[in-house]
Write a structure and sequence with these properties.
The chain is an alpha+beta fold and 521 residues long. Helix content is 34%, strand content 15%. The chain contains 16 helices and 17 strands. The protein has helices at residues 49-58, 108-111, 113-127, 145-154, 246-249, 253-256, 278-287, 292-321, 359-376, 386-395, 415-424, 431-434, 445-459, 473-477, 485-497, 501-513; strands at 6-7, 17-18, 40-43, 61-64, 76-78, 100-101, 138-141, 159-162, 173-175, 188-192, 205-216, 219-224, 228-231, 275-277, 330-338, 344-350, 464-468. The strands form four sheets. Strands 11, 12, 13, 14, 15, 16 and 17 form a seven-stranded antiparallel β-sheet that branches. α13 crosses α16 (501-513). The radius of gyration is 24 Å and the shape is globular. The model has no long low-confidence stretch (mean pLDDT 92).
Length: 521
Amino acid sequence: MPLTRLRESIFPNVPPYLTFISPNDKYDEGEEPPEELVIHFTVAYGTSKTVLECIHRFGARIVEWTSADFGNLPGPAWDMLVVCEKSHPVDFDQLPPEMKINKFPSTSALSRKDKMWSNYKRLQKRNGKKFFAFLPETYNLPADIKLLRWKMKKTKSIWIAKPPAASCGNGIVLATDFKDIPERKNALSVQKYITNPMLINGLKFDLRLYVVMTNVDPIKLYIYEDGLVRFATRPYSANEEDLNDKFIHLTNYSVNKDNQDFEHNEAPGEFVGHKWSLRTFWKYMESQGHDWPRIWTRIKNTMVKTIMCGHADIIQVFNKEAVSDYSCYKLFGVDIFLDDNLKPWLLELNNFPSLENASLDRFVNEPMIAEMFNIAGFHFTGKPNSKQKQALKEKYSLVNPIEFEPKLYSKEKSEDQIEKEEYYTQESVTKEEYMALAEEENLTARDIQILIRAEEELTQCKGFSRIFPRKDSSKFLNYLETRSYSDRLLEAWENKYGDDRGKGREVLSRLCQDWLHLEDV
């Protein structure tokens, strides 16, 4: 397919989307965008070069994020957490309808270790340890301090203490005796240390994976099929005299790059250095006779359950504060650890994953960032005059209207829609009943909009794959305390058209051709 800065929607009467590219691709119309295509992209201080260069390749005008003028230039925005600083506060109910930002409210429910454990324990209690067994036993201090003291006295295990909101290995301590746990005025999470890690060349490692959430109502999750494998730089030892050696026990790049023995990997496909690509790791696992697709499936399932741990907090605030379904998307960096039984464990979820400048990181992250932007689905939100509009339509051979249409993403609902959603979210409604939601005659304007977005996102998946929803969505939705109408709608759609997307898209195209996606909105 041609690579142009504006791409037509696959559905009639839906405005076009922006296309971002990696350094290995080129736009058909050349390096410079036409003068009529004016996009302002707001970015935070400290934004990765990988992100900035992707925006530059498009030709957008970069605006530095300041609280004074944020929101005055509606369009894309990228926030970034710089170490020792806070990300920018965002009033989601004040965002202009044309603004899209890499944030959801309340994602600290996932990224803070203490909150994540509390949410995980709640779902574990509700659904059973058989299904929620991917987070090591944790105690949140100071609330659990007496329990931890008793536990450490009772069992001679190794424990790892982590500040719940810290990153990059900061403040981490390993201990076997309670007196060695740091005294803190603030919160501290103490986890049972996994002492049987899978080793490669005698070294511990973890997997840095990338998950994109494009909505929380309905939940839509995508995982990148490549990632980073990060090694410790000294051979693993669980001996007590080695517990203070961070180069043995921590796999963070920010820690191990300071070891004089750290070896960079300039050959992404080779088993060399202290950082590999995920695809190289799978090649290694295959060479060792391991069934890596099975491991990858288990990891993907763990990712879905991880996000569901924070779902209740996020959706509650999102539905209260966000005024548009266009406003939010989110890239998470998720760290996974494999033990010597090849069982995946969640180490942590990062709200603002660092995107390093090293060549291996760029090899993985440059195409990932461009594709993430394309899946998120940015529209052209400029204000061209009639002449400029016509010039853009001719240049990109566009048939659909070019103007951004806020009604496509409005969260306002008609009385009929509210009544319908209340009925289909009742506990008494059977799966057989709500499967009828996917029938063409039952689709409302809001239903069509939800399905349009889901199908458009899938057309942009090359290196990413969607891990939720899918045909077996119901087993994961059962883990949630509350299931939304839109989750059931997408489950019904996947059940009916998951094996024949062309047929489903024909249905949506017919409805959009008659403007039914904007009826009563």
